[in-house]
Amino acid sequence: MQFPRTFFVFCSALLLCSSLTYGQKASPPAPAAMTPTPTPAPAPAPEYVNLTYLLSVAGPFHTFLNYLESTKVIDTFQNQANNTEQGITIFVPMDNSFSGLKKPSLSNLSDDQLKSLILFHALPKYYALADFGELSTKGPVSTLAGGQYTLDFTDNSGTVHLDSGWSKTKVTSAVHSTDPVAIYQVDKVLLPEAIFGTDVPPMPAPAPAPAPDVSPAADSPSADSKGGGSSSKSLPSSSTSDGIVGLRLSVWSLMVLTGFGVLVLLS
Length: 267
Ligand SMILES: *[C@@H]1O[C@H](CO)[C@@H](O)[C@H](O)[C@H]1NC(C)=O
Ligand SMILES: *[C@@H]1O[C@H](CO)[C@@H](O)[C@H](O)[C@H]1NC(C)=O
Ligand SMILES: *[C@@H]1O[C@H](CO)[C@@H](O)[C@H](O)[C@H]1NC(C)=O
Fold this sequence. Notes:
It comes from Hibiscus syriacus. The protein is an alpha+beta fold. The chain folds into 2 domains: 2-40 and 233-266; 51-219, Roll (FAS1 domain). The protein is built from 10 helices and 7 strands. It has helices at 2-26, 31-34, 51-57, 62-70, 73-83, 95-99, 111-119, 132-135, 193-196, 235-266, and strands at residues 88-93, 122-123, 141-142, 150-156, 159-163, 168-178, 181-186. Strands 2-1-7-6-5-4-3 form a 7-stranded mixed β-sheet. The protein is elongated and about 120 Å long. The relative contact order is 0.16. Bound molecules: 2-acetamido-2-deoxy-beta-D-glucopyranose (3 copies). Residues 105, 107-108 line the site of one 2-acetamido-2-deoxy-beta-D-glucopyranose.
């Protein structure tokens, strides 16, 4: 009787061991900790914003874009967008704002004046629409034309109004607003007082009102929804099959061992 009992104890120990191993294998896997997930690509540097491209597809802003290119101010703007911490905010009149411009004609301006007038349409800093409330409390704001070429802003319950001294206009749409580049559509050409002074008739004929085209800020689509989530999907299935193998093994060993034990006990 001594031998079978020892053997039975031995068998039980084996069983215990095998179920322990099974337990380890089948315990719910911790996929995140155990498997190296591919590290996501580092956040890309601020994306290059091609101003020429943006202005050519929105609007229509062809007249403004033509002036930008003929005066080479496009390079100044693009450089400000590319290479400065502050960024740039550009106010862009649509084509019908230029064609509606009867009284002070731009055709009589010198090259330098025209260049200043175009530079006058941008601020050397990125401003989100929400920033104009605070900006309006700060008095005249310098434009890229410098010196006395300033704009006054007022925020009228969310609508940004601009006063150039000669023309009053407002932001009618955000074409692009992602730091460092903001482009806002305005419904009139900004005529600097520094050029047109006060010797021009005080009330220019009202330009045909462009259709109010207030669209939400066209923020760039968020790129961060792409990286996560797809890589960890194969994990659960492989560990499940591991678990099944473990289960089969331990059932098998249980059967063999109990059968063997019974045999020994019977003999
Ligand atoms: C910017 O866009 C314009 C118009 O689409 C294109 O002609 C030009 O090559 C682009 N510039 C760069 C640097 O990609
Ligand atoms: C702005 O950056 C783009 C892309 O790096 C480059 O092609 C273009 O020449 C730059 N323009 C200026 C004015 O810095
Ligand atoms: C342009 O200037 C000339 C003379 O300086 C003047 O006679 C003419 O009326 C001006 N044209 C416009 C459209 O203002």
